[in-house]
Structure formats: structure tokens, C-alpha cells
Write a structure and sequence with these properties.
alpha/beta; three-stranded mixed sheet; 18 strands
Length: about 475
């Protein structure tokens, strides 16, 4: 196939453009175009959940590389909630394997939870002092834990360095140890002949009178251009993908484009310990537990969450606390920040079930290009709130058991998923099991927007597995 990739962001050089400096990198990798956010629990948009560069959000993701669990795929069949994926875990498993092998995922030798690889391509990252403290809390409470699987090398791979423990994963990895798309999938695509065009802002998917996609109009350097195509694949993620489809007036015969937006709500606990905990010398994510994952009896809510230890550099640490602790000011803020090395973070990642009223629409407000901007509406329901109450207590209990002398709590939201649901029925979904839109036979959507449900796992590995499965189908069947 002859492939052209249009990317709104820049093509960044990991050596020249990435700096091991938190302040200098603020905004460099983020999609910070105007968006409207409303609902009872409006999303904080920008840095946390969308990227703007060749390689996308993976350029500044934390590198957690988790699979969904087998029971995540059949919630309607097995529990009478949510919806089912149009295939099973076993159908995606070989593509999980391929993605982990290609990227070079490091992970533990064994895991006690379903849906995790038994032997990862590379050995796990070492524990730091914060991990050791949290592990003690887990052990005291009888909670199983392991080092989180990471898209971070612990040994050299095809010219990429093993992790140098700079800690600047979310500012852009200078050593290429982190397996972002920029240093893995993109070079492979270029080697195979794909052309990447940076600074190209897609305006509209064009269609012909016979209902087929014919190409994309886009802006580059202020000039309106058109790229004809026999197949169009949209991979702009869960806000910009529905925005582009809605502004183009395509693929929405079901009325489902933009609906069923999901995030991972989070309970974030900050624990202050008696000794320094090395917040800044390892990748940000440390050990995890999936013991609270999935539906369990007697908790008062459906589904569940995971926990992982997390490190923040000082700016993120301070701003994250201030957003949730308005009284943390003046001398008290100085006191907390002066003891920054003594704090570590334990955060949950909670599963949200799909609801059509959580959605992305387009507003009357227009951006600098004259394109209607996305309006993102998010509200939690009783199940979300009950789960957050439970995860609040769980997080604080672990921190206290670990020996934290002080605990501060806040809320967060990770990832944006859904809005172009995958399914068999054209009346209730946007794309079929191979990501082809039901309405336009040669138009595909392949990104996190196609998730019918989200589990409590980070989405990047599942996105890559779905992409491999879709690509294999395209190459064998064509459009």
C-alpha cells in the first residue's frame, strides 16, 4: 500500500527537542487547542489525555503497558451491564503478544491476575524507595503486587538504549528507552515506505456521491490542501476523531458518533514518609495491584479499579495538589514543598461504564482555522461515585499501612476513550469489528475511540493490538 500520514503536530527529535527539564517541556507535547468542557464532572483537557506530535500521546505517556482482562470484553453477556466487545480476549491475544514483542515491554516474571503475559520480552524495572514503602503497605494488608509492565527497555533493543532512569518519561524520553510510537512504529512505517507530513491539520473527510471516502482536506502552513485516498483511516483519538467526523458529516447514521465517552476516574493519595523516597530517579509508574479489579461482591458498585505508585516532578506535584487542596497556601504550601522528596503517590484507576450522555459534540465556537471546536460533556453516576469512595479508602489504608505520617487526597481523571463504538450492529455502533465505519465502506476509525468499554487498564497496548488486527485484515481483504 501507498501510505500518507497527516499529523497536526511536529516531528520531534528525541535528542534535540526533548529536554530533561520539567518547566521547559510544559506544553511542547500537548494538544492545547480550545475545547469546551462541561457536565457535573468536567474533564481537564490537554496535557493529561491528548498529545500533539508525530507519535501522538505516546510521546508523553507514562509507558504503562497493560492488557484488558478477559472478562472486560463481555460485560453485557456475563454481568448484564455495559455492552460487549464484538470479539473475545482470545481474538486479541496474539496481537497483544505481537505489540509487546515489537515495542519491547518489560515486566514481571509472573502475575497473579488474568490477562497478563506470563513472560515479558524484557525483565522488569527495579523498585525504588517509594515502591519499597508501598510494597510494605500492600504486604501488611495482604494485597498482591507486582512491578507494572512498561514500554520501557531494561536491555538494548535494535539501537535503543535501556532505561537510563532520568525519570522524564512524560517530558519526552531522550534515551529512546521508552517505546513511544515515535521510536517504534513510526520508523518501521517509514522504512516500509510511508510518508509522514507534519503540521497538517485535517479539516474534512471528503466523500463522493456513491458514499465512498475520496480523501482529506487539510491545512499546512496556512495553505488549504487535499490528499486523495482510496482508504481513509482516522486515528485522532477520542475527542478529535468524533469532532472530525461530525464536522465532515460522515459515518453517523447511528447517531452514536461522539457518544459513550469514558475516562478512568481516580483517587489520588499523597503520602509523606519519614525518609526520602527518590521521586525523581525512575519512570513515574512503579508497582501496582489489580486485586480490586472487576466486579466483586459486597462493595456496592459494579466493576473495579487498579492501584499503582506514581511519582511527580515538583511542578506537577504542586499544581496537582493545589487543584484539589485550595487551602494549601502560603507557609503551609512551603512546608509541603520543602519536604517534596519525602512524599510519594498512590493512585487508583477506576473503570467507568459507557453512558450515551457523556459525549463529544461540536459547538458554535470556532478555532483559529474556523473549525467548530469540540464540546466535551462528562458527569459521573452513582456507580462512579460509589467506586471513588471505595478507592479513596483503599488508597488511604495502603498509605497508612505503609507508614505514611500524613496523607492528602485528591481526585483525577486519566485517559479519554469511546465516542466511536465498535460493534456488529450498525444501529448501535460506529465501526465494525475491524474498525471499518458501517456507513462508509472505505473509511476506518482506529484509535481509543472504538472501545465499547474500558476496563481499568491503560489503553495504549489495546489500541496497538486493535491496530495490528485491523491492518492485517486490510492487507488480506482490502477495503
Amino acid at each position: 500500500m501507498s501510505v500518507v500520514v497527516l499529523e497536526a503536530g511536529r516531528w520531534l527529535d528525541t535528542q534535540e527537542d526533548f529536554l530533561n527539564d520539567e518547566l521547559s517541556m510544559l506544553g511542547t507535547l500537548d494538544w492545547d487547542d480550545p475545547r469546551l468542557s462541561d457536565g457535573e464532572n468536567p474533564l481537564k483537557l490537554g496535557r493529561m489525555n491528548t498529545g500533539r506530535a508525530i507519535g501522538g500521546t505516546t510521546v508523553h505517556f507514562t509507558a504503562m503497558k497493560l492488557r484488558l482482562h478477559p472478562d472486560d470484553f463481555k460485560l453485557r453477556r456475563d454481568e448484564g451491564i455495559g455492552v460487549d466487545w464484538p470479539f473475545d480476549y482470545e481474538d486479541l491475544e496474539p496481537y497483544y503478544d505481537k505489540a509487546e514483542d515489537f515495542v519491547g515491554v518489560s515486566g514481571p516474571r509472573d502475575t497473579p491476575w488474568p490477562g497478563n503475559r506470563r513472560s515479558y520480552p524484557q525483565g522488569e524495572l527495579p523498585l525504588n524507595a517509594g515502591d519499597e514503602a508501598i510494597a510494605e503497605g500492600f504486604d501488611k494488608l495482604g494485597i498482591q503486587w507486582r512491578m507494572t509492565p512498561h514500554a520501557v527497555l531494561t536491555a538494548e533493543k535494535e539501537g535503543r538504549s535501556p532505561c537510563m532512569f532520568y525519570g522524564f518519561c512524560v517530558q519526552g524520553c531522550k534515551s529512546d528507552a521508552k517505546g513511544s510510537a515515535l521510536v517504534t512504529w513510526v520508523p518501521a512505517a517509514v522504512k516500509a515506505g510511508a510518508e509522514f507530513r507534519e503540521g497538517c491539520f485535517a479539516l474534512r473527510i471528503e466523500t463522493s456521491s456513491d458514499g465512498l471516502a475520496t480523501g482529506v482536506t487539510y491545512l499546512q502552513d496556512g495553505e488549504l490542501r487535499r490528499q486523495p485516498a482510496g482508504i481513509v483511516i482516522v486515528s485522532c483519538y477520542s475527542i478529535e476523531t468524533p469532532r472530525l467526523l461530525l464536522n465532515s458529516g460522515v459515518a453517523n447514521g447511528s447517531g452514536q458518533v461522539g457518544r459513550n465517552l469514558m475516562v478512568h476516574p481516580a483517587s489520588i493519595g499523597y503520602g509523606r514518609f519519614a525518609k526520602p523516597l527518590d521521586n525523581f530517579v525512575t519512570p513515574p509508574v512503579g508497582i501496582m495491584t489489580q486485586d480490586p479489579y472487576g466486579t466483586q461482591g459486597g462493595r456496592g458498585f459494579k466493576r473495579g479499579y487498579l492501584l499503582n505508585r506514581y511519582s511527580m516532578f515538583p511542578i506537577e506535584f504542586a499544581t496537582s495538589l493545589l487543584e484539589s487542596q485550595p487551602d494549601l497556601w502560603g507557609p503551609r504550601l512551603h512546608e509541603v514543598m520543602d519536604r517534596y522528596p519525602y512524599w510519594t503517590i498512590l493512585t487508583s484507576q477506576n473503570e467507568m461504564l459507557p453512558r450515551p450522555e457523556n459525549r463529544v459534540t461540536v459547538s458554535d465556537v470556532k478555532d483559529a482555522h474556523g473549525v467548530p471546536v469540540a464540546r466535551v460533556t462528562m458527569s459521573y453516576d452513582d456507580n462512579d461515585r460509589a467506586m471513588l469512595q471505595h478507592s479513596d479508602r483503599y488508597v488511604e489504608d495502603v498509605l497508612r499501612a505503609a507508614g505514611a505520617e500524613e496523607v492528602l487526597m485528591s481526585k483525577g481523571q486519566y485517559h479519554v476513550l469511546g465516542t466511536c463504538r465498535m460493534g456488529e450492529d450498525p444501529a448501535t455502533s460506529v465501526v465494525d469489528p475491524y474498525c471499518r465505519t458501517h456507513d462508509v465502506p472505505n473509511l476506518f476509525v482506529c484509535d481509543g475511540s472504538v472501545f465499547p468499554t474500558v476496563g481499568a487498564a491503560n489503553p495504549s497496548l489495546t489500541i496497538e493490538a486493535i491496530a495490528l488486527r485491523t491492518a492485517e485484515h486490510l492487507l488480506s481483504k482490502g477495503a
